[in-house]
From TrEMBL:
One of its GO terms (cellular component) is ATP-binding cassette (ABC) transporter complex. It catalyses: a quaternary ammonium(out) + ATP + H2O = a quaternary ammonium(in) + ADP + phosphate + H(+). This is Carnitine transport ATP-binding protein OpuCA. One of its GO terms (molecular function) is ABC-type ferric iron transporter activity. Pfam families: ABC_tran, TOBE_2. The complex is composed of two ATP-binding proteins (OpuCA), two transmembrane proteins (OpuCB and OpuCD) and a solute-binding protein (OpuCC). The lineage of its organism: Bacteria, Bacillati, Bacillota, Bacilli, Bacillales. The keyword Lyase does not apply. InterPro entries: AAA+_ATPase, ABC_SmlMolc_Importer, ABC_transporter-like_ATP-bd, ABC_transporter-like_CS, ABC_transpr_FbpC, Mo/tungstate-bd_C_term_dom, P-loop_NTPase, Transp-assoc_OB_typ2. It is an enzyme of class 7 (translocase).
Amino acid sequence: MTALSIKNLSKSFDGVDVIKNVAFDLPKGKMLAILGPSGCGKTTLLRSIAGFEIPHSGAIKIGDQEVFNERRHLAAEKRRIGYVPQEGALFPHLTVAQNVAFGLPRNSRRNERVLEMLALVGMQGFEKRMPHELSGGQQQRVALARALAPDPALLLLDEPFSALDTGLRAKLREDIKYALEKSNATSIMVTHDQEEAFSMADIIGVMRDGDLIQIAEPNDIYTNPKDLNVATFVGDAILVDGHAENGYVDCPLGRLSHQQKSVEDARVTVMIRPEQLTIEEGRTATVLKTTYFGHDSLIDMTIGEQNDMCSVSIRVLGKPNVQKGDEVGLRVNGDVVIYEQQNSH
């Protein structure tokens, strides 16, 4: 069942297109992460879904209800949406319990629902605390409990971890993912943090300059990015020149297999993820330097002859058993991804 359907949504400010013909469907119970750099339009998209911004064209349907089209704009408070802003934005004069109860009808189940939500986000026992007595992470948990309490059709999270310390983020991400799965919530989170998107979302949409460039499961985004910009944005990438022919690509790292059957007899850029490279029998590379990080190491090396030389970096677990000046074999495992160069032939 589709929880949210967006059709050709566009919005501009002062003549500048901020979102351009964005379209996607989000299944019920799934989390979508809209991933992109600052200024790409992701927060405007979120605010348009919430009803805080009015798009110029397109349509938004939440469940069976059309909340926006060219003749209709349903007010934000009527959309059954939960919204968690960047810094929680709790009411400072209300206790934790009163904050969570804020959007709930006054009935016999109200207190029970508040306690249920606080337990879900790991904040039981904090009912009587005031927001200023809580840490940043605790405030975000309460904000999530408040947003989930009315059982919204859709939950929107706007960079919910950006104000928190790195160490705190990882734990809170796990807990929030658990809470959303347990409550079977359908949610959209906007973030510029790739790790956040990959560790939490069922589906990732990559935005750039107002366009939704690619929307797919995290593994597809990582292993088969739509273009070079997406490839380098969602992880470390080794890029080398090559020539595609007969289902293979020839490049300084050897003759490699790829999946893009449509690209033949063309100059291409080859994209390889660092974890695809291993030191074993293969093309000879010269070690330039090693950097040890404890859990893993980065080995920088060059490969190829003078006129066709390129630099590559690979990650290995623990301390490397090679050093500067060593000559090693380098092997590429699995298919590589290729992108046709505009000036091919």
